[in-house]
Amino acid sequence: MLIFDQLKKGDPHLRTLTLVILTGLAVLLAGLWWVQIVSARDYQESLETQSFRTVRIPAVRGRILDRNGNVLAENRPAYNISLYLEELDRPFKNAYSNEVWEVRAELKQQSAQMEAKLGRKLNKQERKQLALTTAQKALLREKARYEVVSNVVLQVSRRLDRPLTVDPTDFERHYETRLALPYPVLRDLDATNIARFEEQSTSPLGVDLEVQSTRVYPHQTLAAHLLGSLRRDDSSAEGEEAFFSFRLPDFRGAFGIEYAFDKALRGMAGAKSVEVNNMGYRTTENVWSPAEPGSDVVLTLDLAIQQAAERALQSTPVTYTGPVRGAVVVMDVWTGDILALASSPAFNPNDALLPHLPPAELERRENEVLRPIFNRATQGSYFPGSVFKLVVGLAALDAGLDPNETFVVAPNPEMPSRGAIWVGPAHHKIRDLAPPGEYNFTRALYKSSNSYFITNGLRIGPERIVRMAQRFHLGEKIGLFTRQESSGFLPSLSRLSSGWSEGNTANLSIGQDPVMVTPLQVAVLTSAIANGGKVLWPRLVAQVEPEQASADQDPERFPPGRVRDQLGVSQRILSIVHQAMLADTEAPDGTGVGAARECPGLRICGKTGTAQIQNENNVKTGQTTWFASFAPYEKPRWAVVVMVEDGISGPSCSFVAGKIYRAILDSQRNSPRKNDTMANARLTQ
Amino acid sequence: MFDASLNEHQRTLDRLQLAALGALMLIGCAFIYSATMVNNVPSLPWYSQSWFRQIVWYTLGIAAAIAVCLVDYRRVARWSLALYWLSILPLIAVLIPHIGTTHGWGAMRWIDLGYFQFQPSEFAKLTFILALAHFLSCPQDELRHAPNFLKALGLLLLPFLLILREPDLGSALVLLPTGLMMLYVAGVPKRFLLQLVGGVGVLGALFLVGVLFAPPNWQIFKMQDYQRRRLLVYFDQEYAPPGAPKAERERLRKQQFDDSHNVRQALISVGSGGLMGKGWRQGTQNALGYLPRAVAHNDFIFSVIAEEKGFVGSVTVLMLYGAVLFTGIRIASQARDRLGRLLAVGVVTLLFSHVFINIGMNIRIMPVTGVPLPLLSYGGSSVLGSLIAMGLLQNVYIYRKAY
């Protein structure tokens, strides 16, 4: 062979040459083997790190629907005008060379002047001083870039006929840190501007429309507290790829259903890789895991009832100017479905998508009294006032109180038209709104006689009252996962055995300090009385439906009518209470006549309440007014609870409930089949 | 080979070598195309593009090689001294401002001839081989005299120093092994050679120590800053002298990172090619501009080949060069006289030095010096010089010993 011929021949000089070349080629071969075979993987990795950037693509968030499929939260495309910087590479370079040319010309002039002044050529040191430094060049590049970009933006601005500006620091930050992504110039164009932008066939260089999905709540503030709100959060969720070079804007639920069902709604973020060149500009893109859209969450809410409830609540007369502060809960007494959950004042969840809140809105949100973010229906703890007499009454009847036994309310000496009662060793006087005279259970309940219930409360003792309240699970959280829940308060049995006075029992008997409840707890309580003693778990979410495209998995369903506890009170006693509650709206001097007046034709059972709020010096600072009710009397279906902070009185709340019942009946009448079949289909599937 | 000696009819050209050269030229054309046609919309007309210009140079080079073959190398050698001095002239001229051009690279290596930038060192390498071979082809006894040895050394040193002055360290350095190997094969006494090698070794060692370890103002050898930095990059030495302030150290580190960019990217290109490569025109290092466009098609063409054709491609290139080199040695062994033998040895050593330095630089076993890869790198002077050298080899073969 060629090589061995040379080695064999008796020519020592050429043999040496052959050996030298052979060794050299062997060294190269070994080197290539090392680089291309042994370390190939390392070099492939460094190639990827330097030329690929990964981008997290958020998934399209699932919708939130009401029980009939009406949309409460969905997504719409948002069009952004974006600059694709890689297309501006050449203009950047041209602008830069112009800048440099100008500066160089100036420097040349300076050096010519200096030479003229010194009368000699400049030496190396002096020339160096007049040359451009690296830092100066970098500044010129930045300036050139900004010039090009603001020119392009000016063209866009002319086309849209609206002024647009680019913030130099913002742009430079984007250029330095997110070069591989387009630079957004104008976010979320409206339809007119999209049309204006698109009507000319050619866009300015490097400018294009970019679509992103944005959350939208079409009914604005409707059920805002229950739906909750989003906050900007681009971070990776559990089970997702954790390392990305860039993340596109994404949101997480901050509270409400958006928070509680965030995992289902959010879906699975996808990922794409962007190939970048040595300058960091984007060259190609490759989506290697597409985003999986989130699931839809179907609430038990009924849009029409929710709307009616919010409207009715807004119309409540109050003792102050400004928006009504209160809450309404509408619950199905058999299934525990929450048909409406309103809290006022409300906020607009769409605001969370704004880059900044308007200052007036920010101020409103931080207002200590308004607290618009606060969900009064589930988060607010209030004294139940006379509404608690339902619990006391049940406890007393259960302990053997004869409902027909006559009780005489003594007149208040200072106000002879009203009654009063003297409690405890100190004979502390408690006023009664009910007039003096003879009372049986029914009359005592609908006239809300303090004297009657305090007397009977003292008779049976606080322990029986607390035990009855415990069966309703007052003072306990329901566990809503919406970050908006308060447990209320109920004194423990051990608390009763030490330092508990008759005065305390008297207060407890009329729903004052220390017992506290949330409107939702009152709705559960009322439903339990209405449905014959089943304390239900309220249901907010009917099911979680995977997005249509990937509907191979079954929706996750939450069963209706889950019983939390049984009251263990006889039906006879419950029907006594039902009749007494019916009398509250139907007796001409009942406190809840407003309900019957607003909704004629429906027999409503109700109980008003007005709880006093006092400061530490026993001076009245406000009141909480209530109306807890269910209907129809013959075959209970719905419970409606209205709570208004500083309302005029409990009776005024009964009008609100009446309006809501009317709306419920209307929605039943307008589409009885649809509502029933749809609801039943969803609920019984 | 046996046929050649036994048959009446002698083959007139070394066909194996020609085939290898042809293959190398095809590869060169294909990968210059790949390295320069990265954008689908070419900005230049086809006849001005690098791949086509390279074909033009190949054609011109082949024509020149044929012309060289037409005349017996012994007749060419008679003119060797004249040619030698003729090529020294542009080496001097290139150092004169306004004649030499820096090509924007900071070194005066080119003479601008309009269509073509002429690089005189490429031709000086050839005339040097011719002149040295002619000088050393005298009877071997005469080489025992020291003055003759010194004269031979003078022939080497003159172009060496001139090219070093441009500065073009790489082109100057390839002259050293070429000259040494020719002296050795010519039969110069061993002690002379040992002294020469020792001297060069000591100088080289001093030079490296000076560059790498001496404080800046102690440097004995005047070197361009960029050359010093390239060597520091090669030896992985920090730029910053010990005890430099932190900010300065940071700045120099960043600069070092930038300076080692080409080497690092070349290595990534070669390494990421793996066994089979990414396919012709599928390499990303060059397309995305990590491997600088300015050098991808000339000094770093091997990186492009290695990335796109992998280890298989690199080894193919290596084997083709091997074929050219070993047929060259065979030609040397068959040469009819000492002149032919020395010529062949000179050309083979020169070619080998280029290949070793260039490929070595792509895989970081040699420092970065602007040495082209013969026939593959883009560049008129280099292609012409290489093909004329091959013509000389074939010439020696044509007029070889008649057995």
What does this structure look like?
- The complex is a heterodimer of chains A (685) and B (403).
- With 685 residues, chain A is α+β, with helices and mostly antiparallel strands.
- Chain A is 41% helix and 21% strand.
- Chain A has 24 helices and 24 strands.
- In chain A, strands 2, 3, 4, 5, 11, 19 and 20 form a seven-stranded mixed beta sheet that branches. A five-stranded antiparallel beta sheet of chain A has the order 13-12-24-23-22, sandwiched between helices. A four-stranded mixed beta sheet of chain A has the order 7-1-9-10.
- In chain A, strand 15 and strand 16 (428-432) form a beta hairpin.
- The longest helix of chain A is centred in the N-terminal third of the chain and has 30 residues, at 89-118.
- The radius of gyration of chain A is 38 Å and the shape is elongated.
- Chain A starts with a helix and ends with a helix.
- With 403 residues, chain B is mainly α.
- Chain B has 17 helices and three strands.
- In chain B, strands 1-2-3 form a three-stranded antiparallel beta sheet, with no helix packed on it.
- In chain B, helix 3 (50-70) packs parallel to helix 17 (380-398), helix 6 runs parallel beside helix 17 (380-398) and helix 7 runs antiparallel to helix 8 (169-186).
- The longest helix of chain B has 34 residues, at 301-334.
- The radius of gyration of chain B is 22 Å and the shape is globular.
- Chain B starts with a helix and ends in a 5-residue tail after the last helix.
- The interface between A and B is large, with 40 and 46 residues.
